[in-house]
Amino acid sequence: MPCRPRPVRIFLVTLGLFCLSSLRAEGPDAETVLRAFQHSYPEKISDVVFTDGDWTVRAGDKIFFWAGGRLLPAPLREKAESFSPHVFEIYPRLVPSPAIYSPRYAEYLRLQGSAEARRNREDHNRDFQAALFGGPGRRDIESRLENGEFLGKKIVVHEDIVQALKRVEAAIRKMAADDSRPGNSEISAFIDSIGQVGAYNWRAIRGTRRMSYHSWGLAVDIQPKKLDGRAIYWLWERYRNDNWMLVPLEKRWSPPERVIEAFEHEGFVWGGKWPLYDNMHFEYRPELHEINRLLAASSSGISPFDDARSPASGQDLHHLYPDDITGRKRKRQDPAPGVFYFGARRLFAKTASYKKADYKMEGG
Ligand SMILES: [Zn+2]
Prior knowledge:
This protein is of the alpha+beta class. Helix content is 31%, strand content 13%. The chain has helices at 6-20, 30-40, 103-112, 115-120, 127-133, 138-142, 162-178, 186-193, 234-238, 257-265, 286-299, 344-348; strands spanning 45-51, 54-59, 62-65, 72-73, 145-150, 153-158, 194-198, 219-224, 268-270, 281-284. The strands form three sheets. The chain has a four-stranded antiparallel β-sheet with strand order 1-2-3-4. A four-stranded antiparallel β-sheet has the order 7-8-10-9. The longest helix has 17 residues, at 162-178. Bound molecules: zinc ion. Zinc ion binds next to strand 8.
């Protein structure tokens, strides 16, 4: 099959994404994602090349085709439609605040969270993850697990993230020690407030057919002893509150911002930044940080594919979000896609300035 020139392909992919749904955030392109993987897992991934009409990458001893984000081995390319694409959203630097959600976006999230939508969502093909982490069978994954401790709680995680988690813990403990002056004990108080830490757990994501990152031992849940009425996970909140997506940030339980940053610095992403929030959840996705770095570098006009910086160094990039979140059209002269997030850091703080009455919260 002849290679299609890149600009045409990019146009078609962009057009395709646009047609799929005007509500979906525009994702990063195939080459960026595959090179981000290559950088994040240099011992396992190599050879990002355009061949046979698509971008490909070598993971372990197999070649995977991009296939619209599905990452499929050649024999499965013909059945691409029966798999759902992997999610390579732009990981936001700041926490998206529901105070800026338009009614239309809230409705979109309500639909995304409906039991039916979740039940019907196709699973990913797991061969690519298996090439990276072992599996996808339970026995194979369990042969790669290690017992350990995190902030005083016993955990079981994939061997590949043991060192990263140790560095996260060391950073958190150091912050706690540095903070130990009276009246400045945010991090120590956080450590004391932890009820349990969950990690490996062989299961599908609740209400779906998708395998959770916990099933690979690549995710960690930090649960506090007490929630004091705060929301922590959108699905639990949905049982008591129809407007679960609009629960303001300060009514959600969250780890301290510096703890989140310590995880992010080691390649984890925090579920509290997802519109379907999961504030106890951290998962190992260094490629998402690397995607941000590559996109930031390419928008600066400097080729992103030559240098090697840490996976967490892409934090300068703001979040790309569809106009529909705010109901406001982005103007060409806006400085950066992250324009929607102006003030989000302020809203994250307890001194949020929005008015509760704006959203007619019920039972939150
Ligand atoms: Zn979790």
